[in-house]
Amino acid sequence: MFSGIVETMAQVVKIETEQTNKHFTLRNPFEEPLSIDQSIAHNGVCLTVVRIEGDLYTVTAMQETLRLTNLDLLKVGDWVNVERSMLMGGRLDGHIVQGHVDQKAVCIDAHETDGSWYYRFEYDSTKEMVERGYFCVDKGSVTINGVSLTACEPDIQGNKGYVSVCIIPYTEENTNFKYIEAGTVVNLEFDILGKYMARYLSQMSQMNK
Known about the structure:
Elongation Factor Tu (Ef-tu), domain 3; 6-stranded antiparallel β-barrel; 7-stranded antiparallel beta sheet; globular; alpha+beta; 4 helices; 13 strands; 2 domains
């Protein structure tokens, strides 16, 4: 479980393909050493540390993860947002993030505005996806590349959904949002509470027919 408060960024130093899986080796950006089996969110994707060599660690993404996320687009030298799992008893500064990315989105606008940064994203949307809670509500929470953000100007038009976010300069500088521009593919995780509610209402509607 994560909070969506990105700790830092890690750089990809090696990518290996094994059948349908990909092994990503990154340089450990944390002051503390990591351990085998530790869970770390990479661009919002929960992955398990499977190998440690000095200050390098390796995680593995399976085919389904690669299909649903932007990890398959990573190249050596790219930077990813990383967050270790939450500590019990600490403050929840973001919102409840599972690290289970729902789908990809594409940035369609990115610009600076009055000292902050504005981004708008487009994602695929169908009636079935909405019934499963894959949508945003105004002032609700959404996770983009592992960053907990407040959703603004959500909209659904036809088979496309839209959401905007505004971020402060600190977030821009300390996450890979600084590399996002029109056309960049990002990872989306919708609010887990919204997904539970949407699926509950959908099931109740089905039962009452």
